[in-house]
Amino acid sequence: MSDQPAGKPTGKPPASSGARRPGPRPTTSKVPPTPPTTEVGGIPWKPIAVIAGVIAVAVIGTLLILRPGSGGNGGTGGTGGTVPCPTKQPPAMPAGETRTVTMNTEKGQIVMKLEADLSPIAVGNFAALVECGFYDGVVFHRTAALDADTPFVIQGGDPTGTGSGGPGYSIQDEAVTAQYGRGVVAMARSSQPNSVGSQFFIVLSDEARDVLANYNTYQIIGHVTSGMEVADAIFSASKGVELPTDPVKMTTVTVANP
C-alpha cells in the first residue's frame, strides 16, 4: 500500500509506487460503496457489484492497495532535512529502538511513535525519509472510507501527490506481527512483493482491522500518540472524496530519538 487503502468509494488499502494502496480490505467487514472507475496497479478498475463475502474481500483488497509507482518510481520529497535522502533501502532500525515523529499539517499536529520491533526495515526507512525532509510539503492524497459512515484511512507520502510516486527505490517485505486498528501507522504497498516505498497510512477506525488483517501485508511501523483528532479532520476536509483535489499538506515532519 505504498499506494493506498480504500475510500468512500473503496475501502481499499493504501498503495504506493509499485506499492498499492493499503487501503485496506474482509468477509466480515462492511462492503464499501461501489468506487468510481480508477487505475489500480495500472489496470482500469471498473465498479463491480458485490454478491458474496468472498467477492467483497477481493474488491476491498484491490481498492486498498496502493497505486503502482510508490516504490520504485517517484521524485524527491521535501528538502528541509539536514542529511541526504536515501537512494536505496536504508539500514534497519536496531531492535528495541523507538523514534518520535512530529508531523505538522495544515490541520494541526500529529505525533507518532515508531517502534523498530514492529518492522525494523520499514521503520528504518520511514525514519530516514523523515530525517532528510522527504515528507515536507507532501500531501495526504487519499482519504478513504469503508462506507458512508465509517472512515477507513488517510494516506500520504507520495511526492507527486498522485498515489503513484515514491522515493525511487523499494524495501523488503516483513511479517506483520501486530494488530491493525485506529491510530496504527503502516506502509502502503502494491500487490507486488517488496513494493513498499515512502507512502504510508493512518488507520482511522477499528472497523478496518479485519479488512487489513485479511491481507496482513501492510508493514506496521508504529502508532499515533497524539493528534488523532487532526487525522480525523484531514479525512473530513475531503468531504467524502477519496482523492481530493485540494488535499491537506504536511508542512514539516521531524524525527527525534526517542
Structure write-up:
This protein has a single domain (15-256), classed as Beta Barrel (Cyclophilin). 16% of the residues lie in helices and 25% in strands. It contains 4 helices and 12 strands. The protein has helices at residues 53-64, 120-131, 209-215, 228-237, and strands spanning 15-17, 38-40, 43-45, 66-70, 98-105, 108-115, 142-147, 150-156, 184-187, 200-203, 220-226, 250-256. The strands form 3 sheets. The chain has an 8-stranded antiparallel sheet, with helices on one face. It is globular, with a radius of gyration of 16 Å. Mean pLDDT is 80; it is low at 23-63 and 66-75.
Summarize the structure.
The chain is α+β, with helices and mostly antiparallel strands.
Labels describing this entry:
single chain, 258 residues, alpha+beta, Cyclophilin, 8-stranded antiparallel β-sheet, 12 strands, 16% helix
CATH architecture, by name, is Beta Barrel
> What is the helix tally?
4
The best one-word shape is globular
What radius of gyration results from the CA coordinates?
Answer: 16 Å
Q: Report the β-strand fraction as a percent range.
A: 25-35%
- H and E string: EEEHEEEHEEEEHEHE
**Beta strands, count:** 12
The CATH class label is: Mainly Beta
Mean pLDDT: 80
List the helices and strands and how they pair.
Layout: E1 15-17, E2 38-40, E3 43-45, H1 53-64, E4 66-70, E5 98-105, E6 108-115, H2 120-131, E7 142-147, E8 150-156, E9 184-187, E10 200-203, H3 209-215, E11 220-226, H4 228-237, E12 250-256
Parallel strand pairs: 1-4
Antiparallel strand pairs: 2-3, 5-6, 5-12, 6-11, 7-8, 8-10, 9-10, 9-11
